Amino acid sequence: MAGRPAAEPLAPGRRRPAPGSRRGGCVFAGIALLVAALSIHNASAVIAAQRARESALLRAVGASRRQIFAGHLGEAAALGLVASVAGVAAGYGMAAGL
Question: What are the extents of the domains in the chain?
Answer without folding.
Answer: 64-98
